[in-house]
Design a protein that fits this description.
290 residues; alpha+beta; OB fold (Dihydrolipoamide Acetyltransferase, E2P); 3 domains; four-stranded antiparallel beta sheet; 9 strands; rod-shaped; binds zinc ion
């Protein structure tokens, strides 16, 4: 591309810098940075200035033929044709500011930095294979998400932060397990039935859950009142002065005799006597065999 053989309108000897308008600036990118493009205000005002005929040789200055990474797209206003030139030509031959190239370089540097930190954070994750990173990424806990964002941002986190997010995850998992357990328990919760059980004098086998325990002194000595419900939610009452032994919320199989049917504030309660614990249901068979 020497001046001697060029006859095109952009040939250097015929150059009229004022005939050219900057359409945009580009950075072809590098190994670590993606390509970038910035449109000029002129293009933003009149988009028809954009979209000229491009050659594949964006990496070569149309004016001097030098290899380039950063280029400026120029519109030749008299002909409407486009050329792209490198930084030196833009400044020296077209007398235009190269400030936009500085902006592109700064952006590329930020990309490089972001890439380095991203790689560092990936190495940090690889260095801690014991951590369930995928679960942490997906868990939706705001605190954990914030610490993971810091890991991406700074390339690493402290041992304390790492421990904190694992603890938070464990706690969430336990809460979730409890919530699921409560939900399932709720599904099988019998609707309370306001009914009496059996007939007075009848000896029954019952599955009961202890709802309340109250101890007091009576003429028979230490007495304990057990409020219970059976597996159909029917209310039971048993005064124990002896060996009946149960804990609140415990579910047991008992044998007992119906002593009376009583109405307590609208609730039908079956009063029991001579109750004997057959088996606390939550005890494993191994322990029961001891
Ligand atoms: Zn050039």
């Amino acid at each position: 591309m020497t001046d001697a053989i060029r006859t095109d309108i952009h040939r250097p000897l015929a150059l009229v810098p004022e005939d050219y308008l900057e359409a945009g600036w580009y950075d072809l990118g590098g190994a670590e940075e993606p390509p970038q493009m910035r449109l000029s205000d002129a293009v933003h005002r009149d988009f028809s200035l954009w979209g000229g005929v491009y050659t594949d040789e964006l990496w070569r200055c149309d004016h001097c033929g030098a290899r380039l990474r950063y280029g400026c797209e120029l519109v030749h206003r008299p002909s409407g044709s486009h050329i792209h030139v490198g930084e030196t030509c833009l400044n020296n031959r077209f007398s235009r500011s190269t400030a936009e190239f500085q902006r592109l370089r700064r952006t590329a540097a930020l990309d490089r930095q972001a890439q380095r930190l991203l790689q560092a954070s990936l190495r940090f994750r690889a260095d801690h294979p014991e951590v369930a990173w995928a679960d942490l990424d997906a868990c939706g806990n705001a605190f954990i998400a914030d610490v993971l964002r810091k890991l991406r941002q700074y390339g690493d986190i402290s041992a304390r932060q790492l421990e904190a997010i694992q603890t938070a995850y464990e706690r969430d998992a336990q809460r979730a397990a409890v919530a699921v357990g409560q939900f399932l328990a709720g599904l099988y919760q019998p609707q309370p039935r306001n009914e009496f059980i059996g007939q007075p004098g009848e000896r029954l086998g019952l599955q009961v859950t202890v709802r309340s325990i109250r101890s007091f002194e009576s003429q028979w000595g230490q007495t304990t009142l057990y409020g219970m419900v059976d597996d159909q939610g029917r209310s039971l009452r048993y005064f124990s002065t002896g060996s009946f032994d149960a804990e609140r919320d415990q579910t047991l199989t008992i044998r007992a005799t119906v002593k009376a049917h009583e109405d307590y504030q609208g609730e039908r309660q079956t009063v029991l006597t001579r109750a004997v614990v057959q088996a606390p249901l939550h005890v494993t068979s191994q322990r029961a065999a001891e």
